[in-house]
From TrEMBL:
PROSITE patterns: SUBTILASE, SUBTILASE_ASP, SUBTILASE_HIS, SUBTILASE_SER. This is S8 family peptidase. Residues 40-301 form the Peptidase S8/S53 domain. It comes from the Bacteria. PANTHER family: CELL WALL-ASSOCIATED PROTEASE, SUBTILISIN-RELATED. The active site is at 49 (charge relay system), 86 (charge relay system), 250 (charge relay system). The keyword Hydrolase applies. Signal peptide: none annotated. Keywords: Hydrolase, Protease, Serine protease. It comes from Metabacillus halosaccharovorans. Belongs to the peptidase S8 family. It holds the Pfam family Peptidase_S8.
Length: 322
């Protein structure tokens, strides 16, 4: 039985309460999009993880639908209770509600399709992840909504053809798939570290920087890193209406997933049409700034939504680089 699991992450602090715009969300420039009136409205992001604390006051209004693929809670398909905390943290970075309490997510008016594919121990069968991707691809909401982004802060060492095929099917349906690069980095950019599904060339593979814009020592390096985002000392929602500071490429990934919702909202308003997956990817990469690192560390650079004021579409050449 093949397994996939949480990419290792560090829990640094758990807080009863806070009131803050998280520094990572400021670093990627999300407030610039908010000032222009873009909050991710109308976009659904599928989060494949350990579930979510759906009663958290920051998330209870953000969830449009759920499905449990694991054996937790006797396999009840509508019980996505998070016994780990990881999935809840990821969900908060994507779209914690704007309510003058706690934290705020990158895209606070986006919606979450919570797909529980990992158990409370942080592991799951690869087929659960594969089924989750296919579910997200086919899912339709009560008003015809469809998933625009799949976010996966998980990984394994093995390349699974069926998992790869499911991802390709999602992309063929114009869904952008965002994955963590992994935390096996050895500090040497000349050596490759791969975690799947992040290592598949079709996905957006996200590496990590700290809040000083320095590459995280744990962040995997390889030739198919697409970009980096904040992944150290990231404060977000946690179990029991609390908050936690976590570190890992798992924490970088949802910054990008939420940013894509903002980009789609802005660009589809400006161009008055739906964007293809390749066009969304091109717009994402336009919103990166190169750091002083090898591309094997940083890909195209650090996510910066402040670069998105002029969103002229340059699709084919940029998308071809993925």
């Amino acid at each position: 039985m093949s397994k996939v699991g949480l990419i290792p992450f560090t829990i640094q602090t758990v807080l009863k309460d806070t009131k803050i715009i998280p520094p990572g969300i400021k670093l990627v420039g999300a407030p610039n999009s908010w000032e222009q009136g873009y909050f991710g409205n109308g976009n659904v992001i599928a989060v494949l993880d350990t579930g979510c604390d759906s009663s958290h006051f920051e998330l209870q209004n953000q969830i449009i639908d759920v499905y449990n693929f694991t054996t937790d809670d006797k396999g009840d398909p509508k019980n996505v209770k998070d016994y780990n905390g990881h999935g809840t943290h990821v969900c908060g970075t994507i779209c914690a509600e704007e309510n003058d309490r706690g934290v705020i997510g990158v895209a606070p008016k986006a919606k979450l399709l919570v797909l529980k594919v990992l158990s409370g121990q942080g592991y799951g069968e690869t087929k659960w992840v594969t089924e989750g991707i296919r579910y997200a691809t086919k899912w339709r909401g009560p008003n015809g909504e469809r998933v625009r982004v799949i976010s996966m802060s998980l990984g394994g060492r093995d390349d699974h053809p069926d998992l790869h095929k499911a991802i390709q099917e999602a992309i063929s349906q114009e869904i952008l798939v965002v994955c963590a690069a992994g935390n096996e980095g050895d500090g040497n950019h000349e050596t490759d570290e791969f975690a799947y599904p992040g290592a598949y060339p079709e996905v957006v593979q996200v590496g990590s920087v700290n809040l000083q814009k320095e590459i995280s020592t744990f962040s995997n390096t390889n030739k198919v890193i697409d970009l980096v985002a904040p992944g150290e000392e990231i404060i977000s929602t946690y179990l029991n209406n609390e908050f936690a500071v976590l570190s890992g490429t798992s924490m970088a990934t949802p910054h990008v997933s939420g940013a894509v919702a903002l980009i789609i909202e802005q660009c589809e308003k400006e161009f008055d049409r739906s964007l293809t997956e390749a066009e969304v990817y091109a717009q994402l990469i336009k919103r990166t700034v190169s750091l002083n690192y090898s591309r094997r560390y940083q890909g195209n650079g650090l996510l910066d939504l402040g670069l998105g004021v002029d969103s002229n579409i340059e699709t084919e050449q940029t998308a071809a680089n993925k």
